[in-house]
Design a protein that fits this description.
Helices cover about 30% and strands about 25% of the residues. The protein has helices spanning about 60-65, 125-130, 130-135, 140-160, 200-210, 250-265, 280-285, 305-310, 315-320, 340-350, 375-385, 400-420, 505-515, 520-530, 545-555, 585-590, and strands at about 20-35, 40-45, 45-55, 75-80, 95-110, 165, 185, 195, 215-225, 235-245, 275-280, 300, 325-330, 355-360, 365, 395-400, 435-440, 445-450, 455, 485-490, 490-500, 540-545. The protein binds one RNA strand through strand 1, strand 2, strand 3 and helix 2.
Length: about 600
RNA sequence: GGGGCCGUAGCUCAAUUGGUUAGAGUACCAGACUGUCGAUCUGGAUGUUGCGGGUUCGAGUCCCGUCGGCCUCGCCA
């Protein structure tokens, strides 16, 4: 190890330290060689300090300094000196001082890095992930990781204050084929058998309630073997909790309190509670999705009734065959060109919409290629319904409900961005961040899976139906409401939870509805059904996507920015090159032989 | 599994309808320079145009395949 042991960090020294002898260590950030005097910005996690090598101060150090290059790791001892007033750098916390070097030690050299270690360079994701250790050297990345750490610390303290106990649950556990695809781990000791990595600790936390833990939380990795998105990684972190003897409001209150705490302690911001609540039904009706962005209006309106009366065949046919016609008012968008509207049409095509009908609103009424199919009354009825004013553009999708909802929900966001209704990201020069929380409640318990011709849980099979809906469980299952709730932030589902079923008879009825027979239920969830027999308390909980939450709080849009070592879209790690092939011997131990792809 | 965008110097990108020796900025290297902080000035080096095949007199450019990255639909109880 070096003779020089640091006494301060690179973000620490101030005017008051002038005159003292200090030792600093860190990376060479930039080098400015004036021949006579050489300046180095020395960087570590805490900041940067300007280092001065002046031949008149110490010629030996100055000579050594000419060999320094970017990312060399050095230690140096010297004298803190106050900078003359006109040489202060206001962009640096340490900008009022600089360090005149007496002794320099090069702890390590560095090859030229594949990209520059600065906050503002644009480098491909591929390179950043391959050289993640260099990427993480960028101050902004360290800021993100520290921010995430702080969120976790605040959460831990909050839960501790509120009597929650952090309990670790197993990673090597049991496959549950419902839901997402499992990551499987072969067992060597039990040949031919597999563990699964948990998609969430759902059943364990319920079991902990049966155990009487009363309040559990965990910040825990979960694994889902599904295709990736900017908002979705195969391994991600949940802030998971479960509580006994609670109703919906108790869980909601705990989470609102947590959010208040995080905002005040991490962002130094006040937020007001309670968060508004919106029923699933209303969310779908007004926004076309169950995680609406409530930072702006532009709600969806339905005109199926008008559509039925018109001479416009497309509308008519859809309206009469059980579909619906709904639309949004893209306020002020009448100026969009034909080409731009065509682009919007292509945009909704990807959600299954066959087309996009539109009207431009002007002083005289509605104009478009299809306006002639609508009588004056129908036109004014439509105008009325959308409170349309001259300059507006009305956009319609006619199809089955799911297609209409999804298309319009996405179209609404698209127009919202176009019209500047969604605030710009702060790092892209935007202004104050806006955070809009809401709860979506009154979810249906089940949905009908057309593909498989059966009912699926909307949430998961352990969600409790409402007590008063139990009597119609078998007769009108789609009308049964769940005791579930989702928390939404700026149009992103942050998390969801529910009051669980705590009685084995009801749990069995749900399994039956889901077409899971006794034998299968026993095989997969027998331990839960068994546990529920022994005095399981009423309980409920929630899980929040930590990666998503941190991403949004930082005003970013890619969760990879807040994950130290994320995967690519093909679920690989470019840095360690995982997944990879394994030795034949390892497979032999596991009793596995690979089937060659055809 | 489907659709789309992309791959050119270490990095970020350019290169007319297919046309001669593939350029710029930056980084890098060398020299100059005692107050810079995106240092400056002068000079220099840098390419299997992801890979394989095809079309063509001629391919960075067109076609097929393949690998990789990104976005997206499906999927994600």
């Amino acid at each position: 190890m070096s003779d020089l042991q640091r006494t301060h960090t690179c973000g620490q020294l101030r005017k008051e330290d002038a005159g003292s002898e200090v030792t600093l260590s860190g990376w060479v950030d930039t080098r400015r060689d004036h021949g006579g005097v050489i300046f180095i910005d020395l960087r570590d996690r805490y900041g940067k300090t300007q280092i001065v090598f002046n031949p008149e101060h110490n010629s030996e150090a100055h000579q050594q300094a000419s060999t320094l290059r970017s990312e060399y790791v050095i230690a140096l001892k010297g004298k803190v000196t106050e900078r003359p007033e006109d040489m202060v750098n206001p962009n640096l916390d340490t900008g009022e001082i600089e360090l005149f070097v007496d002794k320099l030690e090069i702890l390590n050299t560095s090859e030229t890095t594949p990209f520059e270690i600065t906050d503002d360079t644009e480098v491909s994701t591929e390179l950043r992930l391959k050289y993640r250790y260099l990427d993480l050297r960028r101050p902004v990345m360290q800021k993100y990781l520290a921010f995430r750490h702080k969120v976790c610390q605040v959460a831990r303290q909050y839960f501790d204050r509120n009597n929650f106990i952090e309990v670790e649950t197993p990673f090597l556990t049991k496959s549950t084929p419902e839901g997402a695809r499992d990551y499987l781990v072969p067992s060597r000791i039990n040949r031919g058998q597999f563990y699964a990595l948990p998609q969430s600790p759902q059943l364990f936390k319920q079991i902990l309630m049966v155990s009487g833990l009363d309040r559990y939380f965990q910040i825990v990795k979960c694994f889902r073997d599904e295709d990736l998105r900017a908002q979705r990684q195969p391994e991600f972190t949940q802030l998971d909790l479960e509580m006994s003897f609670v109703r919906e409001d108790d869980v909601i209150n705990i989470i609102e309190g947590l959010m208040v705490d995080i905002f005040s302690k991490v962002l130094n911001k006040e937020i007001t509670t309670p968060f508004p609540r919106l029923s699933y039904h209303d969310a779908m009706k007004m926004y076309g999705c169950d995680a609406p962005d409530l930072r702006f209006g532009m709600t969806i309106e339905e005109i199926t009734d008008i559509a039925k009366k018109t001479d416009f065949k497309v509308f008519q046919k859809v309206a009469e065959s059980g579909g619906q016609v709904r639309g949004i008012n893209a306020t002020g968008c009448a100026s969009l060109s034909r080409k731009e509207i065509d682009e919007l049409t292509t945009f909704v095509n990807q959600f299954g919409a066959k087309g996009l009908a539109w009207f431009k609103v002007d002083e005289s009424g509605l104009t478009s290629q299809i306006a002639k199919f609508f009588t004056a009354e129908e036109q004014s009825e439509i105008k009325e319904r959308f409170k349309a004013a001259p300059g507006d553009l009305l956009l319609f999708v006619a199809d089955k409900e799911s297609v209409v909802s999804q298309s319009l929900s996405q179209l609404r966001l698209n127009i919202g961005k176009r019209n500047g209704l969604i605030p710009a990201r702060p790092h892209s020069g935007g202004n104050e961040k806006e955070f809009n929380f809401s709860w979506i409640v009154d979810f249906p318990l089940l949905e009908f899976n057309e593909e498989l011709g059966r009912y699926d849980s909307l949430h998961h099979p352990f969600t409790s139906p409402r007590q008063e809906d139990l009597q119609i469980l078998e007769e009108r299952p789609l009308d049964v409401r769940a005791r579930a709730y989702d928390i939404v932030l700026n149009g992103v589902e942050l998390g969801g939870g529910s009051i669980r079923i705590h009685r084995p008879d009801i749990q069995k009825r749900i399994f039956h509805l889901l077409n899971i027979d006794d034998e299968t239920a026993q095989k997969r969830f027998g331990f839960l059904l068994e546990a529920l027999k022994y005095g399981a308390p009423p309980h409920g909980g929630i899980a929040l996507g930590l990666d998503r939450m941190v991403t949004i709080l930082l005003g970013l849009d890619d969760i990879r920015e807040v994950i130290a070592f994320p995967k690519t879209q093909k679920a690989t790690c470019l840095m360690v090159d995982a997944p990879s092939e394994v030795d034949e011997n390892q497979l032999k131990d596991l009793g596995i032989s690979l089937r060659k792809p055809e």
